[in-house]
Amino acid sequence: MLTARHVLLALVVLGGVTLAGCSFTSQDTTYPDEPQVRDQLASIETLEAEVVTETTVDGNETTVRTHLVREFDTGHYRSSVIDGPAEGMTVVMNESAMQFYDPSSNTLQYIDRPAINATAINRTVDTVSTIYNRLDDGDTNTDGQIGISPAPTVPSTGTGSNAGQPSMILPVGDNVTVTNAGMDTVDGREVRVVDLDSTDEKSLIQNATYYIDTEWHLPLQSTVAVEVGNQTTVTTSTYTNVTINGAIDAGTFEFQAPPTTTVVDGPNGSFQQFDERASLVEATDETVPDPSVPTGYEFESAEVYPAASGQSLTIVYAGTSDSITVTKRTESDVNLTNGEQIEIAGEPARRVSVGPNDAIVWTCAGTTYSVVGPTDGPSIADVAASMGCN
User: Fold this and answer.
1) Residue 67: how many CB atoms within 10 A of its CB?
2) What does residue 384 show for φ and ψ, rounded to 5 degrees?
3) What is the pTM of this model?
4) pLDDT (tens digit per residue) in 351-380
5) C-beta neighbour count of 278 within 10 angstroms
């Protein structure tokens, strides 16, 4: 299910990748089916790697190298920036909490641990399986939801660092061309190379490339190119020194801060999930959006999580076969130039294509709102108008 968090990642984080100088071998036209992909991904118990992320914005390049350790059954996680901006920034999640160490301020923040679920793995399964199915059927054009995802990771913490390695599930548009670009190697492992190109000029993400490990069906390298107005962002995420199902050193998921470190409470509360609106209202000091949703849609779930110096509230309203998601993110100001310009509550807004969905995004006094719903579904503009700036 596409949520507003993923839309905000597309609109705020905006990652992308380009690659050059790759030599491809002969085409591989045999693709595993969904059960094979799911079974193999489910058999990954541990993952350790160095993740190299290269981001270029209008010719200015930034490179960050991160050491990542993940234990999927327990949800334990450790990510440390070992080279580049924010070097030393560390995120650790164990059975009791998420910990964020910022060496620039020598502070350690604790946030209650979010619930463990298989969402990250499921999204990877869905993405890889969809690509393989289209290629296997010879149907290279699709209006289904195809995302851009590296190896599954925990959500972004919004603390101002990429040390949390957020999952980049970024749909590429209503119409996507999927092309088998042959075989290659990443970190000495054989990968299938798949190119995705959007035919929708309104799409934020115009093209992407997957380098999918042929043994584990895990994207070891992803490529995304994003255009926002006149600015192009290109980001490369490459997994190197990859070890799957290896032994994890004792103490990996415990963080020993320097003795002079200042320990503080988590920023603006903790990750929380709710199945009733009343519980959400009680859990936050922010005004909770109460939109008028179409008949047949009902409150399904909500989340609150820290975002920079504020909070992000996400509410999902489920219909029979799809959903409408609204979000409110404080201390955030998104200035979009893509898509159709409209007006919500007297404020300028943009309507953009996000995979099989449309999204309306607007900002009121430093707070950003969005509504996401199926392109061919009920009017999300009416939902947005009913929210206004509350």
Assistant:
1) 16
2) -60, -45
3) 0.63
4) 887 667 788 989 888 888 999 888 877 889
5) 10
CA dihedral (184, 189, 191, 197) positive or negative = negative
- Locate the domains of the chain by residue range: 4-244, 268-387
Using alpha carbons, list the distances in angstroms from residue 47 to 117, 192, 308, 321, 383: 17, 20, 28, 34, 42
* Cα dist from 184 to 120, 191, 219, 262, 295, whole Å: 25, 5, 13, 47, 50
Tell me the pLDDT of the chain averaged across its residues: 76
Could you read off the pLDDT of 12-23 as tens digits, one per residue?
Answer: 332 222 222 232
pLDDT of residue 32: 87
Residues 6+ apart with CB under 8 A from 168: 9, 13, 15, 148, 149, 150, 222, 224, 237
Report yes or no: 356 and 171 within 8 Å, Cβ to Cβ.
yes
Residue 249 is given by DSSP the state P
Summarised one tens digit per residue, pLDDT across range 274-323 is: 889 998 898 888 889 999 999 999 999 888 876 655 778 889 999 988 88
Please determine, looking at this structure, whether the domain spanning 4-244 carries the CATH number 2.50.20.10.
yes
Say how far apart CA 154 and CA 87 lie, in whole Å.
19
C-alpha–C-alpha distance, residues 111 and 156, integer Å: 13
pLDDT of residue 335: 65
Using CB atoms within 10 Å of the CB of residue 24, give its burial: 0 to 12 exposed, 13 to 18 middle, 19+ buried. exposed
CATH superfamily of 268-387: MucB/RseB, C-terminal domain (3.30.200.100)
The residue type at 144:
G
Task: Tell me the sheet residues that pair with 215.
Answer: none
Q: Which amino acid is at 150?
A: P
Burial class (CB in 10 A: 0-12, 13-18, 19+), 103: middle
Three-state secondary-structure class, residue 281: helix
Res 265: pLDDT:
62
H/E stretch holding 6: helix 4-8
